[in-house]
Design goal:
Layout: H1 3-28, E1 30-34, E2 39-41, E3 49-55, E4 58-63, E5 69-75, E6 80-81, E7 92-95, E8 99-105, H2 106-142, H3 145-160, E9 164-166, H4 171-178, H5 182-194, E10 198-202, E11 205-208, H6 211-218
Antiparallel strand pairs: 1-8, 2-7, 3-6, 3-8, 4-5, 4-7, 9-11, 10-11
Helix pairs in contact: 1-2, 3-5, 3-6, 4-5
């Protein structure tokens, strides 16, 4: 089997695993509604539930000992969150806007899905979190302010699979995720628009005008 065939097979298996786990969760899970800014689970609470976004956007945050806030990530429709390796939530989760969330007890899912399916499900979720954590570490540790903002906009566009993107988060959320001040984020966005790389129809909506330029800036 060639490397390309191996990658195709791995992609196919991931897709089948995601579809199977989605069916199991839909059959067992309970839909819960959360209003904008409502807490879904708290920082340092026990992690005995698994969550999947049905609609809306979720943010994860951690409050530092000095009161500063670090945003860990944003989760969109059909994305899982809340899977922890040590049974405790390092971050809290909040509804960024009105959300519908599918919630299932981990132990119940394990009992129904079995060791194999449950292991693949949690492994896939943990692997995605690791990828995101590594990308976030690189972004915070090595990229300039302009590169961070460009990377953020490019990631949002990629995840939404569209050139025109609605921003569910405000400038402060972006700043706390990127490790910048809100003034710096606003300045970088203004520069990107002035350079005609992106165009903002409003403070919560943008369109990529020059994707290749945005990619270069993000790299």
């Amino acid at each position: 089997m060639t490397q390309t065939q191996s990658l195709d097979e791995a992609t196919r298996l991931r897709g089948e695993t995601k579809a199977a786990s989605s069916d199991i969760m839909m059959g067992m899970g309970v839909r819960m509604s959360f209003a904008k800014d409502e807490e879904i689970y708290g920082q340092d609470e026990d992690a005995d539930l698994i969550y999947r976004v049905i609609s809306g956007v979720v943010r994860t945050t951690r409050i530092m000992s000095d009161g500063r806030r670090q945003i860990g990530g944003f989760y969109y429709s059909d994305e899982m969150f809340g899977v922890e390796p040590d049974g405790r939530h390092r971050f809290s989760a909040e509804a960024l806007c009105d959300c519908s969330i599918l919630v299932v007890k981990a132990s119940a899912l394990h009992a129904v899905a079995g060791d194999g399916a449950f292991g693949r499900l949690t492994w896939a979720a943990t692997n995605r979190e690791l990828d995101r954590a590594q990308d976030h570490l690189l972004l915070l540790g090595r990229k300039t302010a302009a590169e961070r903002v460009a990377s953020f906009l490019l990631d949002l566009s990629t995840r939404r699979a569209t050139e025109a993107v609605t921003l569910p988060m405000g400038r402060q959320d972006m700043a706390d995720y990127l490790g910048l001040t809100i003034e710096t984020v606003s300045r970088m966005l203004t520069q990107l628009q002035s350079a005609m790389v992106v165009e903002f129809a409003s403070t919560r909506s943008f369109r990529i005008c020059n994707r290749s330029a945005l990619v270069r800036m993000a790299q």
